[in-house]
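--- STAGE predict ---
source: upstream dedup step, 1 unique chain passed
mode: sequence only
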Amino acid sequence: MKGKVCVFGSFNLDITAILDRFPMPGESLVAKSSKISAGGKGANQATAALRAGANVHYIGKIGEDDFGCFARRHLKKVGFNAVTILSSSERATGNALIYVAGENAENMISVDPGTNMIVTKEEIEKCEPAIKCADVVLVQLENNLSAITQVLAIAKENNAFTILNPAPFQKIDSELLSKVDLLTPNETETFLLTGQKITDKASAEHAADCLHQKGARKIIITMGAKGSLLSEPCSKIWIPCFPANPIDTTGAGDAFNGALAAQIANGNSIKQAAIFGSAFAAVSVEYIGAACTTTYEQAIERMSLLSDISTN
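--- STAGE serialize ---
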């Protein structure tokens, strides 16, 4: 039986340009190609969780504009088990301008969060039934903190496993961390949370200890091609990065977090879920666009390339 994942988070319309290199200030460059696609960390992670084998309810807020019409069509097409679309005419639908450049397909992103940042208390109260019945509740920081805190509080009151992906970075306090079972920052977010720069395994482990001191129970620090660190107060496990031929790394973190949530909801350990999430993310960077197109079967096949990894 599929586990239930509730994802509260952003929807953005992404405009992506593929370049040989990033432009300098004041410079205009001709793109190799461009694409308009669905994005936003919430929608991306919800899509990844669905494709990774979970029963997914996505909750997000859009504007009453052309981008919002695009969002409705896209979210219907994805095939979520359930969708709650909140809307407002006060601001535009969230959108992002993305540059992808170089052999490693690195990215630079500018985001206008729009309606993602004006989710009200009353709107979250209407979503309580969806949050209450979830096995795992997954949130990010691309919405207003008041709404995120409210969602996590409802989840914890109803014994859901909670995951916070602290991206894009906002300052969070110990009260918010107390409602989080698993925190999943990348290297940059870890530095912003702790002041500890990540340069190697030792520095990552030290930063994880700092996060534990701040109240984080379980932590996965994602480090791109260097892999990930799974840290609990009494143990630390390194999760490898799987082989990939990167074309666009924009949605790798979202693919990882969505797949991670799905696997935990389906009863797997955090270690097993992190290994699967790493393989799932490796496949995702081989496609253009932040919205996940990876399948469960592709991730399983990618895992077989590293036969020395034990998932037990």
